Fold this sequence. Notes:
CATH architecture of the largest domain in chain A: 4-Layer Sandwich
Helix content of chain A: 25-40%
Number of domains of chain A: 2
Strand order of the largest sheet of chain A: 6-5-4-3-2-1-18
Radius of gyration of chain A: 22 Å
Largest interface: A-B, 31 and 31 residues
Largest sheet of chain A: 7 strands, mixed
Shape of chain A: globular
Distance between the termini of chain A: 10 Å
Oligomer: homodimer
CATH class of the largest domain in chain A: Alpha Beta
CATH topology of the largest domain in chain A: Metallo-beta-lactamase, Chain A
Low-confidence stretches of chain A: none
Strand content of chain A: 25-35%
Amino acid sequence: xxxxxxxxxxxxxxxxxxxxxxxxxxxxxxxxxxxxxxxxxxxxxxxxxxxxxxxxxxxxxxxxxxxxxxxxxxxxxxxxxxxxxxxxxxxxxxxxxxxxxxxxxxxxxxxxxxxxxxxxxxxxxxxxxxxxxxxxxxxxxxxxxxxxxxxxxxxxxxxxxxxxxxxxxxxxxxxxxxxxxxxxxxxxxxxxxxxxxxxxxxxxxxxxxxxxxxxxxxxxxxxxxxxxxxxxxxxxxxxxxxxxxxxxxxxxxxxxxxxxxxxxxxxxxxxxxxxxxxxxxxxxxxxxxxxxxxxxxxxxxxxxx
Amino acid sequence: xxxxxxxxxxxxxxxxxxxxxxxxxxxxxxxxxxxxxxxxxxxxxxxxxxxxxxxxxxxxxxxxxxxxxxxxxxxxxxxxxxxxxxxxxxxxxxxxxxxxxxxxxxxxxxxxxxxxxxxxxxxxxxxxxxxxxxxxxxxxxxxxxxxxxxxxxxxxxxxxxxxxxxxxxxxxxxxxxxxxxxxxxxxxxxxxxxxxxxxxxxxxxxxxxxxxxxxxxxxxxxxxxxxxxxxxxxxxxxxxxxxxxxxxxxxxxxxxxxxxxxxxxxxxxxxxxxxxxxxxxxxxxxxxxxxxxxxxxxxxxxxxx
Lengths: 305, 305
């Protein structure tokens, strides 16, 4: 299986604690890195988790609360000091981020060695904002105190796996293998035709990772998230603070689990923990009553999608 | 002795490493906290080092490189989330900091619960920029790639210590003690006059702490720093990178030690270490050849002035 993993860099909420960094994640898809949110301290978390600065090309910002984006200027400044040349693309809802950040980049990253390219998207409807040969990224409109979107990373279908013993048996030359992977059959020296299906195993099913934070539960995204492999959903509070969650535009662990259940997600990661919980087991226990496959986010955690 | 201590929150230079945070220090003078520089991650370092957010009233920014001030917005945002009401005063060279930060504070700290008051000072001449009953803070013009000042913290003279045995012997009432500390004598029940000097021990000598970073050596500050108790001087490089130090507006460990020697400082702390040194012993050894009382800065280090 090709690499598709999620690295948790920070999973606390706005108030920094000794236990959690503020929000950031890095999705590693076949050694290309995609960042989701970039709180203060994110560049150091990348170092700690051995994530290569130079493999990061795209940063997706869910919303413009400080605990999701105040690490950008420092990180970009460091990239510039290191002589980066590849452009860095930053995606965020609306135009505010560029308006706010550009004067800081001009001042603090004077003489910057690479382009920082801002892309804005509408927080009101789901759209594909990034697409390449291996992955597409789609926004998931969320409900928070300000415009906010989650992100759905969908791996592109991969080619089927070649049946090594058939290649050996038929003495198929190396140069023909890509064509077979892509759908061709093979005619052997005796003129017998072998069908494509006889020469390959089925491709791995394409995988999907969804990030939903910060938000109250949003049922409108369920059709997009049906059968998602891994759902990250914020669970800032437990059920006994349900009214606080509603007031502040957040979810409880039970609500995150309900969402995973409704989407038929394969696994649920919960995070964005309020500083009021010295031990998040209470959140995991609450979610597990509703949905069985719950993982607590944690700095340094790496999840294979 | 009244408390006068320097806490090192970060002593690395611009490139963050696993070993060092970027620059920040907190001076604790009789439980009032004064911050010098505020790099990304400073608020978390305060938490780690058990420094109370609410005791911090004044932040002194040496210059506007990102590794000395990019932690301000996040820290202020956290103070606001915690419901701070006391104003926060920020001192920096020129007007750029307010121009850059104000739009971020308006956006990211919307509805902020306290006043952030910016004070600008000239980086060209030394001046007293803060003064209260216990301490004055004076700028020290430095030579860097941009306008930059160090800071000299001078404790105000304290009152002399009362001689407890004389108080007991003469049965001097509690209400009279402050007057005696402030210079008065005492007439006993037999009409004998006791001089002030007979009733007290001399006050502790007022102490001074100087912070010089980032900078090449600046001889112009030597008269102000004569006999300083503790001198923090940057030592980004060792002597073998002296030309790199000059190019980038920094000092070597030897230059920092020369400065301490010329000022007749009592102790020297060196810091702002380049990421090229996996072990700073080389810098300490270099400085110690010139000046005997050298301490390597380190995150978490607390120095009694």
